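Working notes for the structural subgroup meeting. M.R. asked for a predicted model of this chain before we commit to crystallization trials. I am recording the input and output together here so anyone reviewing the notebook later can reproduce the run.

Input as submitted:
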Amino acid sequence: MHYGTGRVIARGSLSPARIALLTATAFLAMCAWVVIMASSQAHAASGLTAKASTTVPAKSYVKATVKIVLTTPKAGATKKVRISVAKASAPTKSWRGKTRKVTLRWSKGAYRGSVAATAKKPPKVTVKVTAMGKPLKKVVKAPLAKTTVTTATASLRVRGGKHPVSVTVSPAFKRTVKLQRKSGGTWLTEVKKTVSGSALKTVTFNLPATKVGTSKWRIAVVKTAKAKLGKAPFTVTTVDPGASTVVGIPKALVVTAANPGRLAASIYPAFGRNVSLQEYNPNTSSWLTIDTITTNKTAMVANISFALPDRAQGVTKWRLRAPAVAGAYLAVNSSAISVTTDLGPGPLRGIKNFTDLEAQGRPIVIAHRGGSDRYPEQSREAYEAAAATGFVIEADLRPLADGTPALLHDASTARTIIDVNGKPVERAINSITPAEWANLRIRPAYVTGIVGTTLTWEQLLDEFGGRATIAAEVKTAALARRVVDDVADRGLADSVILQSNSQPVVDAMTARAVDRGVSIRIRRLLTATFFSGDPAQLNANLAGLFGNYYNEYLGASLAQTSNVLIPYVQQNGFDQSLVIPYSVSEPDQVRALLMTDGIVGFSSDDPWYVWSGIATSLGY
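Returned structure, recorded in token form:
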């Protein structure tokens, strides 16, 4: 047998005592080795480690997941550790001032487990345990949450114009996201946006047009108290943009009320472009989009045509604009087109009083509020246009603070009046002095239209009396006497119709005209209230109107004129030839009525258009 001494001892050469001694020595050596190994193992295993990672599941708190490993000799399948969150971390209610016990389970030679702690910011977590009679403690500070920024591609190839770039950001609670371009060694912010309210958010930037060549860009999500800085770099290669053209546009165009005209052109390339009709706005010195047409997505060339909207008499400027196609073509504008609107003559051009009008059998066409579809409502500019083209100019009278009649339909200025800077004015008309009224302005009829000049009743008579026929609606009884006196004093009784929807005001004006010894035409306006109620009440209203005092002009809506007034007077033998319906907007609405023995005219917000549609059929 060999014992490591370099000698071979025959089995039979040892005495029993010698054999016993050797056996005892070997046993003691083995026991010592076991003790040493056990002690070494116990020393190595008595350790505690903890690692934390952070997420942001909601805008009000973060979640730290702590993974714990306890290396100690196995003493059962599980082991308890104590967990607490530092007060300075602003823990959520479930962790506030509390210590929790967490169970670790034996796996792969150690006790392992995890715990999730929540706080307003990445928390400091303390782990405590006693292993083999020795207290162990580990403090771990949760890191900021990782910010993930994902783009669709790491490189873009564009052909002029702006190009959309979309990224997803997580976490996205109260984050500032920047589109940055590298210039030299510095990242310059081109655009920044703030996102909020979601763990995951998609953000889209329009990449600015860049010069031909390659440039470096990135999306940067700014670091917060909860999450790290996030970055997503990408490169942009810009190549020469393709050419775009707009052809077939005239340099000038003349349109009328009957034919407002169209602008037609060919766009190349088309491919689903949103082509806009734009009008130059002199009020803001800018181009305003009026209408848009989307071309066919697969068409190389598209022929498009826009209907021009109604405009006031005069010259306007227009153009067509085809925007850039991202990654393909640059934007293109057509040259400016000069459009002249010629509203033409009305039926009363050159006629200055109602005696001549009635003698010639001309229809009474009233420009309601001056023709407010095309001009600022009840403005000097509207009345100039209506008078020049041959219509009756209509106004509404309300008293200013000192009783001076001013031209305004509503009791408040809110709908139509602005100051000299274009800001809305909201005041009761009877709180405004004449000096203040003179410094106010009237909203344009449309965005690019002219701003209007306010007038008083006296100014209207002085500027237009004797050169145009006038219809004035008196809104309050307090003005009845004064309005009649103003007409009588100026000798304009034959050029003016006074009207009201109130029978007492009509009676007051009629009585005052008698007192002054003048014959002024009076027009009673019938509102919906007059026609409401049951049939018996309506018949009573009509009988009283026609049977007792009606011998002047009458006004009613087109529908009430056609459905009620004309049938009534025909059935009862009254002369209905003094009815002037209002709310007329289309030629077909009134053409048949004017060609029959019945209606003497009509009132419209766009008398130019309505008259142009019926003048030829009436022989004008």
